[in-house]
Each structure stands twice: as structure tokens, then as C-alpha cells.
Automatic annotation (TrEMBL):
Residues spanning the membrane: 12-33
Keyword Membrane: yes
Native species: Mobilicoccus caccae
Sequence segments annotated as region (Disordered): 103-126
InterPro entries the record matches: Rv3654c-like
Keywords: Membrane, Transmembrane, Transmembrane helix
The name this protein goes by in its record: Secretion/DNA translocation related TadE-like protein
């Protein structure tokens, strides 16, 4: 009768466990990355939609929806407030992260108030 080494096979179990943990971390990182990308897209779409809506003599929510659609976003709320416009948009993350819901962002745009920007150097002197 031969005795087997009691340590035999432990490396296989350790390697399988390590690979499983690595796969879980990788999937979590991919989900997080997808959510962050959707958040950035939502913020950009909200800013651009609000700016587009505020352009012109009267705010136009139709223009906000058109610009949001170009950025694969959906306008959930568009409220003109005088010369200003508030926009809330949502972007659905890609892949499996879509199960957790969409990323939303809000933006407000309108005419510039206060002093006009000079666009140059305000320093005086030699």
C-alpha cells in the first residue's frame, strides 16, 4: 500500500480560487467602468442639451431633445424658466450595467449675467 502526499492537489485548489476571485474583481471593474462612462455621457448630454435649448430668443425643449438624442440620451425633464432652461437627461449604461438603471444628470443654461468677460489679460502696467 502506498501513501499519497497529503499536500498533493492544494496548488490546484489555490489556483482555481485565485482565478475565480480575479474574474469576480474583473467583472466588478467592468460594471463600474460602464457606469462611470454613462455618468460622463449623461453630464455632457445634459450640458449640451441645456445650451442648445437656451440658444435663441426663447428656450426650446424640442432642441434639447434633439441634441440629447444625438448623444444617446433621453430628456426626462425640460423646464424653461424665463430666459433659462433646466434639463434632466438619462443615459443607459452599456452591457450588464444597464440592469442597475440609467445615469442621470441635470444642467441649467441661459444668458450670461454679470460683467462681460474680456477674454484677455486684465493686468495693467508696463
Amino acid at each position: 500500500m502506498t501513501l499519497r502526499d497529503p499536500e498533493a492537489g492544494h496548488a490546484t485548489v489555490l489556483a482555481a480560487g485565485s482565478i475565480g476571485a480575479l474574474v469576480i474583481v474583473l467583472v466588478a471593474a467592468l460594471l463600474l467602468t460602464s457606469a462611470v462612462i454613462a455618468s460622463h455621457q449623461a453630464r455632457a448630454a445634459a450640458d449640451l442639451s441645456a445650451l442648445a435649448a437656451a440658444r435663441g430668443s426663447a428656450p426650446s425643449c424640442d432642441e434639447a431633445r434633439r441634441v440629447a438624442r444625438l448623444h444617446r440620451a433621453t430628456v426626462h425633464e425640460c423646464r424653461p424658466d424665463g430666459a433659462y432652461v433646466d434639463v434632466l437627461v438619462g443615459v443607459l449604461p452599456a452591457g450588464a450595467a444597464a440592469r442597475f438603471g440609467e445615469a442621470q444628470a441635470r444642467a441649467r443654461a441661459g444668458p450670461e449675467t454679470g460683467e462681460e468677460l474680456s477674454g484677455g489679460d486684465d493686468r495693467t502696467g508696463p
